[in-house]
Amino acid sequence: MNLTTTAPANCQECPHLHNSLMGTCQMSELSLVSVGKVYQVYQKGQVIFRKGSRPNGLYCIREGKVKISKVTGDGKEQIIRLAKEGDVLGYRALMVNDPYSTTAVALSDCVVCQVPRSDFFSIIEQNAQFSHSLMRLLAKALGEAEERIVHTAYKPVRERLAEALLLLHHIYQPSTPGPFSIPVSREDLAALMGTAKETASRLLSEFRDEGMVRTQGSRITLLDLDKIGKTSALYD
């Protein structure tokens, strides 16, 4: 179970504030949110929200990485989005008061702040910049979803692996420069690509043999970003 408690710090002190939707809030609005919000600590693999449940507020990732996925008609998981520190979750369902259409799961140990529904809608009504930023998020999410549908249907799986690796690189890239490895299971990699685990493993071995990546257990290090980028764009 996740641990829920009052947040130890106010929103103004969040290290990801200026890279987040909440960065468009006024100081008075952030003070309001700081009083009402809670933070929830999730261990790797725990569900943050589940498809079919009702939204109670806006989720803001303070620490950690999250996957948002659906289960297809044949029972396979399809990851439709990855989220990192500063990202917000669940805003579409919250705005239209629909049950969640996806499930969000912690890819690592996470701290996630939840802004109450009432505070979220109060800010929308009072803050035009917040509302405009939220609309841009919705439009971007729609565009990315459409692009993913096209790529899954028409893009060869080798190119989809390269694309998935670039996305993972963006999500896991640390703030300080230097080499780093990406912790990702073969199951999650396959779900991100929209293919079978065996296919993802075979193609990853090909990328390793071609000098594009190095693998050690479930960790992947990208060695040739330029070549991976060119591979991902072969059919664009």
What does this molecule look like?
With 236 residues, this protein is of the alpha+beta class. The protein folds into two domains: 21-152, Jelly Rolls, CATH 2.60.120.10; 155-232, Orthogonal Bundle (Arc Repressor Mutant, subunit A). It is built from eight helices and twelve strands. Strand 5 (66-71) and strand 6 form a beta hairpin. Residues 3-7 have low confidence and may be disordered.
Summarize the structure.
InterPro entries: cNMP-bd_dom, cNMP-bd_dom_sf, Env_Response_Regulators, HTH_CRP, RmlC-like_jellyroll, WH-like_DNA-bd_sf, WH_DNA-bd_sf. The chain has eight helices and twelve strands.
DSSP summary: helix tally: 8
How many individual β-strands? Answer: 12
Structural class: alpha+beta
Q: Round the Cα radius of gyration to an integer and report it.
A: 19 Å
Using the alpha-carbon principal axes, give the shape.
globular
Residue ranges: pLDDT <50 for 5 or more in a row? 3-7
Largest sheet: 5 strands, antiparallel
CATH topology of the largest domain: Jelly Rolls
Order of helices and strands: EHEEEEEEHEEHHHEHHEEH
Return the CATH class of the largest domain.
Mainly Beta
Q: State the domain count.
A: 2
State the helical fraction. Answer: 40-55%
Name of the CATH architecture of the largest domain: Sandwich
Strand content bin: 15-25%
**Considering the protein shown, what is the CATH homologous superfamily of the largest domain?**
Jelly Rolls
On the 0 to 100 scale, the average pLDDT is 91
- Sheet with most strands: strand arrangement: 1-2-9-4-7
**What is the terminal-to-terminal distance?**
43 Å
